Fold this sequence. Notes:
The complex is a heterodimer.
Chain A: H1 3-6, H2 20-47, H3 49-72, H4 76-106, E1 113-114, E2 123-124, H5 129-135, H6 138-149, H7 157-165, H8 169-172, H9 184-207, H10 209-212, H11 216-240, H12 246-269, H13 276-279, H14 285-304, H15 314-320
Antiparallel strand pairs in A: 1-2
Helix pairs in contact in A: 2-3, 2-12, 2-14, 3-4, 4-5, 4-9, 4-12, 5-9, 9-12, 11-12
Chain B: H1 2-23, H2 46-55, H3 57-76, H4 80-84, H5 96-109, H6 115-126
Amino acid sequence: MSDATASPPVGRSKLWQPPIVGLVTFVLMFVGVGLAHTLMVLIEHGLGRPTTLAISPLLGFIGIVMLWYGVKSKNESFQTWIGFLAGIIVWMCWVEFFYMWYGRENWGMLPRMDGVGSGGPLEVSGTYPEYMIMGSTVGTLLLMLCLYAFDKDTRCNMFLWFQDKLGLKEGLGPTTKKAQDRNYAIITFMETFFVTWFCYAWNLLTFDPALMGSGDFFIGINLASVFIATTWAGFCLTRLIQFKRTATALRYAIPVGNVAWVNVEILEKLDMMSHEVFIDPWTHTFEASVLFGAFLTLVVAILLAPKKPSEVGARAKRGEGVS
Amino acid sequence: MTSLRLRIAGMVGAGMLALGATNAAAELLPLPDGMGGVSDIGAIQCSVYSNMIRIGPLGSRLSLLTWAAGYYAATSGKTLHALATAPGQPGGPWDFDRLTTHLVDYCAANPQAVTADAVRDLAANLGVAR
């Protein structure tokens, strides 16, 4: 897992220009969210649930080891990919599987049920015990986001917007970090983790019948969520399609793809669509294979896409006097 | 005499409870919004219970066993612990795992039955009527 093996060609390309870079990274991240569901299901079925839950804390360390390699790298593109993959693995193992063990096996929580008192068929809701626990972490999430909201060195456009509107810029002072000071492995790792957490919390809050009920208010709130998620992701997409650097576009596409995915979860909850292809790939083998094949093709295409010198560490190497 | 009356009343009550549970499979007492599980755990179809077991194994086992404990107390006047540890039980004393696995296995084998049927089947094995 050295930099050399991950180094893509450096140069220019007529194909990898706006809006192709942004569109490809958006589709990649959007489908990637769905395939992360598939990966989780495959791990659970491959190892068996008891084994998966027992070793999930150890599995999470695979992500940390990957992150260690990524942080040591000088290649921004490599750092970005490693940070993203490590973020997915750690989220899956240290949050989803761990909460699953706590909710289902340790605390003995009962699944939330749909259809009680509504005349519909009685069935297990998609808000499994682990997601009931996750819904309670909103306060912790907001607390952690304060770190970024009040960090003068954050480069996230959303937090910069908040800092501007809240008049924080003067108080926080100018940033002390340059691009070369930033390690994109840890940045992408944390971004992937927090974006995933945020979008889960968003869905779980609007799905919670204790907060939203189960009637018109529930429908209204969730349709409002669809409106917000669509316009938010759409606005960000208009910026994303202007990106030229694949590494930057990948990082920006993580929240755009995830926010767009919020719609999928809501429309599924409202019985308007299904993403069963991602969570039951055995029943939809052909469709799941096509999606996975398309995803892999896009990954390879981006890996092989010509990179700007700054994306593959040329700037850092110059600074260190390495040829 | 009083004890016999109580016992008969208990059996009639339990019978009505079980009959009501069977007939009320589609009408369950709604829980406060947000809670997991169902109130009438003894009145749901076994196929639904099997799905609950898949997602919330431990809690669903305990929930139905608690319902069963009430049913057995009403029909026999004995606690679940007393029934499970009574001398002469074939296969030895029943523990939580053995009791709940019996209920789970019954429902897996009889998806169209209601959970009260599984509880009655366990009752027969526990010798509740003895």
